[in-house]
Amino acid sequence: MLEAQVLITHETGLHARPSVKLTKLAKGFVARIELAVVEQGPWVDAKSIVKVMATRAPQGSTLFIRAEGDDAEAAVAALVDLVRRDFDEGAHVPAND
Fold first, then answer.
1. Which three-class secondary structure state does DSSP give residue 6?
2. Which of 27, 40, 41, 53 has the lowest tally of Cβ within 10 angstroms?
3. 35-49: b (≥16 Cβ within 10 Å) or e
4. What is the 3-state secondary structure (H, E, C) of 15-30?
5. Options 5, 12, 15, 89, the catalytic residue
6. pLDDT tens digits for 3-30?
7. How far is CA 34 from CA 9, 46, 67, in A?
8. What is the pTM of this model?
9. Distance between CA atoms of 77 and 80, rounded to whole angstroms?
10. CATH top-level class for 2-88?
């Protein structure tokens, strides 16, 4: 089981668009991936949009991620990177003109 934690800086936290991006990315891995907003849980399936959105993780909270399986290391690294990139919605991402 691999684990990591990352700070959510997105202004709306882990809500609609960020949750969709996170679950879509998670579904690209075969590993079992779970996340929580407190280290003790409850842990939810990161591949379930309903469960991810239900965490209601606000901006400034820590997201705990854990994964188990063949590509667990890559899965955890990719999800942490997505959150650190502000779900590709930050000011550094070019706007669609």
1. strand
2. 40
3. bbbeeeeebbebbeb
4. CHHHHHHHHHHHCCCC
5. 15
6. 999 999 999 999 899 999 999 999 999 9
7. 20, 5, 6
8. 0.89
9. 5
10. alpha beta
| Residue 78 backbone phi and psi in degrees, to 5 | -65, -40
Helices (H) and strands (E) in the chain, counts: 3, 4
Q: Which amino acid is at 34?
A: E
| 86 exposure class (CB count in 10 Å sphere: 0-12, 13-18, 19+) | middle
Tokens 């934690």 belong to residue: 5
Give domain limits for the chain: 2-88
The DSSP output letter for 42 is -
- Between CA 44 and CA 19 the distance in angstroms is 13
Strand partners, 3: 66
